[in-house]
Amino acid sequence: MTATVPVLTRWFTYMDSDDPDRVLSMIAEDFAMSVQFSKGAGQSAEFVGDRDGLVAYLAQREKSTLTHHIDVGAVIGEYELVVGRTTRAGAFEASFNATAQLNAAGAVRRLLIARTPEVAFTQ
């Protein structure tokens, strides 16, 4: 992963670990999120909400099976933006993009993630 987006790099490192709940320590009090999750072939789900929404998202996801790779990242003011891909056992699974808005203390206030296996960005 790239070091140019320190918060999202840490976020996805936690998500890839045996203890993804550590991301809960990274969110602001006014946190809000949406994760648009496509499995392909028009099958998708949206996970939304505040801290409780994130807890529900974490509870339903597989642990330590996917690896997030950030291919491109940028910091623009209070925002971090990335484009990347997930792999399972080294094989491509999906592309994703993520945008995080940070507060003055560096905690995540807003998080928008979209992922799909239907589009692969080649390097």
Walkthrough of the structure:
The chain has helices at 6-15, 51-60, and strands spanning 27-40, 43-49, 66-76, 79-88, 91-102, 108-116. The protein has 123 residues and is of the alpha+beta class. The protein has one domain: Nuclear Transport Factor 2, Chain: A, CATH 3.10.450.50. The chain has a 6-stranded mixed sheet with strand order 2-1-6-5-4-3, covered by helices on one side. The protein starts with 5 loop residues before the first helix and ends in a 7-residue tail after the last strand. This is SnoaL-like domain-containing protein. It comes from Nocardia jiangxiensis.
Query: How many helices does DSSP assign?
Result: 2
At the first level of CATH, the class is: Alpha Beta
| Strand arrangement across the biggest beta sheet | 2-1-6-5-4-3
- Ends apart, CA distance between termini: 15 Å
Class from secondary-structure proportions: alpha+beta
What is the correct CATH architecture?
Roll
Give me the count of strands.
6
Calculate the mean pLDDT score and round it. 94
Task: Quickly list its features.
123 residues, 6 strands, alpha+beta
Offer a quick outline of the entry:
By secondary structure, the protein is of the alpha+beta class. The protein is built from 2 helices and 6 strands.
